[in-house]
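Hey,

The postdoc asked me to send both predictions to you directly instead of through the lab channel. I've kept everything plain text so nothing gets mangled by the mail client. Protein one:
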Amino acid sequence: MTSLAWLIPAALFLGLLGLAAFLWSLRSGQFDDLEGAAWRALEDDEEPKD
């Protein structure tokens, strides 16, 4: 029974921490341009050497 006294607050704390991180990422603009990030991952930055 004492393990539940530790596990429930720990789970609630970790859940709130994850929610805070998600809300921070929304406010900082991490999810603004998902299409652009997908295309940048596919582009080649270097010119081919002959």
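Protein two:
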Amino acid sequence: MVNEQLKINDVIEVLIKKIGINGEGIGYYHKLAVFVDNALPDEVVEVSIKEIFPTRIVAEIVNIKVSSPDRLEVKYPLYESCGAYNMQHLTYKRSLQLKRDILINSLNHYLDEKIVYAKIKQTVGMEQPLGYRNKVSLPARKIDGKNKFGLYAKGGNEFIPVNDTPVQHPRINEMIQALEVLMDTYKFHAYIQKDKSGYVKSVVIRRSDTTGETQVSFLLMEKFEDILTVSEKLVEQFPEIVSVFAFYTNEYKDQVFFSKDYEKILGKATINEKINGQTFSLYPESFFQLNTKMADIFYHKMKVLANLKKEDVVIDAYAGIAPISHYIAADVKKVYAIEIDQKSVQSAILSLKRNNITNVTVIQSDFTKALKNLEIDTVDAMFFDPPRTGLGYDTIKQVLKYKPKKLIYGSCNPSTLAKDLAILLQTYELKEIIPLDMFPYTPLVESVSLLVLR
């Protein structure tokens, strides 16, 4: 076998054929798949082998012999290594094409029957694909006596300082930089696990794209007596910060940004985001898409694909703060919005009331449990926007008991979408998939699918 003849650090030449789910190039060496970060389709690359498995090789580029015309110079190598901006090596136009390819490759991998490519539309992109992130969640570290915020390297725990990523809103970058200085000045240090010193484990900054209102949430390992002073100094520099929270934890290894133990330091409990002519009230923990402009397009596409009628009864599953319910409420008779997270439910109820929407019932529950307990005879349409894990067999089994006439599936993971479609397409016909670029300059692919009962 070929892989038995190869050794770590061997250099081989590979023609890159396609793009993988994580944005890596995939080629073949004597029928053995070769995965190469930052390689693009149609490139010929010399690569050094780093890992060898029975059916695949992981390698890294040594030399590009034939370069893609879409290749760009990497200007921010650190941000590429931490995944915050790791498709900066190709043109934006080409990245949109490749994201559709990532979706197609996933469908081909998991589905027995090939999807007609005409049903998979071109990727909807952004006019301005930089500065789109309205929310950042950053761990803190103390390096050479200075406080830094950053991210971890892909697939590891190496900390990479990041305080001005081009995909983050410029104002958020300014706030991160100012906060690092204030933390140094007031000795509000990042927590150091080995000597149990310092306070700050991480920070989350969320900025409303439409109102500019900003919320800052610290996660602390212990209380800091001057946190109000630091917060006030930050607000002096950035008056749009209208909400500051401190969350507390004693679990250093848990990769979380919020906890049940918290206090409001100053300002309001929520900030307001306006989208679709409606106002959404966001608590720190409430889930809301971090690219507001694309979120509006995403929800609008779901609504248009659904083609709802006034007498329809609809379920909005994995509802979050119920943006889908807000978008469709005026078009239907009744919506049941199902969400398990308490703060998202509180946001949903607050926002629905604020927008005078009365035909949406919010149910705080696990989705499958809620379905079992719902006392309705027919469901005309069911909307999904699940986490990256997708729906899965158990959830789909519950859905199929109701057999909604239409399913509108918003996905953030082509692999789990494809696995779910493998089950759903036994009962439903796929009419259309629209890929969307919710996260430019990353390999992540969002999509909206319409399925109709056979």
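Summary for protein two, as requested: The first helix runs from residue 2 to 5.

Thanks,
C.
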